[in-house]
Amino acid sequence: MGIGQLVGFAGATVVLVGMPGPNNLYISLRSLTQGRRAGVVSALAIETGTLVYIAVTALGLATLVKASPALFTAITLAGALYLAYLGVKLITTRTSEHTGGVDTAPLGRVFRDGVLVNLMNPKAALFFLAFLPQFTTRDAGPDQLRTEMLLLGAGALLIGLVFDLCYAVGADAIGRRFRAVRTTSRGRNLVVAGIYLALSAFALIAAF
To answer: Which of 32, 54, 100, 199 has the lowest tally of Cβ within 10 angstroms?
Structure first.
């Protein structure tokens, strides 16, 4: 790969990764409601999902998904339904009427949900299925193609991690005011549930 090719990939990746999407919204949501630590854990979770995409792409399994629109749609729908489930669960969960404080979802669950959000994110899937292969060398052999996929994927991961951490820190700064507002746990759950349902709607729109 030439220098111009790499620079072009990096520039295009910055634009695509920086655009708001389900991953950014999830990280911001966690930072807003739970603080910077949860936001950073969410960022690491999102990029753990990216590692899975990199491995799948390098192994050539992404070609199988790309060749089967029905499979891609099924994966996207599964992600949308999961996000909707999280939103409905928050709406139906009984909460206390205490005020102030910070939500206390375990960081393990925050991490798990973050990985799943990225794996079910159609924007991330399309990035590795359609965008990343455009920057590989034409007529490259299998070994060279796999190496290039890994290198490009690693570059995308690093760029994504920088943006994710910026979202986490920025949302935490805004969230300090949000968390300081005296409100019921029920009210906060409805806000978070609304964001989950919005993410679900985004995924459904992308699927069709």
So the answer is: 100
Q: Give residue-wise pLDDT tens across range 70-83.
A: 766 777 777 778 77
Nearest Cα to 26, choosing from 14, 7, 49, 43?
Answer: 43
Q: Which of 4, 2, 14 is nearest to 131 (CA)?
A: 14
Contacts of 123 (CB under 8 A, 6+ apart): 21, 22, 23, 206
Counting residues of the chain whose pLDDT is more than 90, the rounded percentage is: 17
What residues are paired with 41 via a beta bridge? none
**133 DSSP assignment:** G
Residue type, 94: R
Residues shown for the chain: 208
Cα pseudo-dihedral 79, 83, 84, 89, rounded to 10: 140
pLDDT digits (tens, 9 = 90+) for 100-143: 444 567 899 889 989 988 887 777 877 887 788 778 777 777 77
CB 44 within 8 A of CB 169: no
Q: CA-to-CA distance for 123 and 35, rounded, in angstroms?
A: 26
Q: Within a 10 A sphere around the Cβ of 115, how many other Cβ atoms? A: 19
